[in-house]
């Protein structure tokens, strides 16, 4: 199990993961922050980038805010290296 902080930018021009904001990984999604649409988009984008299923990406804190805590139920080997590379983008 791996946990990490993210900063979400809803309503972006494109879905993207990369960069850092106050120690948190930045995730930009096209979906608006309405009725959980941005949260679902965040789960899908992170799953794609990390090579896991979207159902394995859980928002455990910050459901209604831009700052969230993410938990990977089944983290693949080397996920910490992937997260570090995404923060460096």
Automatic annotation (TrEMBL):
It comes from the Bacteria. InterPro entries: DUF167, YggU-like_sf. Belongs to the UPF0235 family. HAMAP family: UPF0235. This is UPF0235 protein GCM10023214_55590. It comes from Amycolatopsis dongchuanensis. The lineage of its organism: Bacteria, Bacillati, Actinomycetota, Actinomycetes, Pseudonocardiales.
């Amino acid at each position: 199990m791996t946990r990490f902080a993210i900063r979400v930018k809803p309503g972006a021009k494109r879905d993207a993961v990369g960069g850092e904001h106050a120690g948190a990984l930045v995730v930009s999604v096209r979906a608006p922050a309405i009725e959980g649409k941005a949260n679902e988009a965040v789960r899908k984008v992170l799953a794609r980038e990390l090579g896991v299923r979207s159902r394995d990406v859980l928002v455990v804190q910050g459901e209604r805010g831009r700052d969230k805590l993410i938990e990977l139920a089944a983290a693949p080997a080397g996920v910490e290296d992937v997260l570090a590379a995404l923060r460096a983008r």
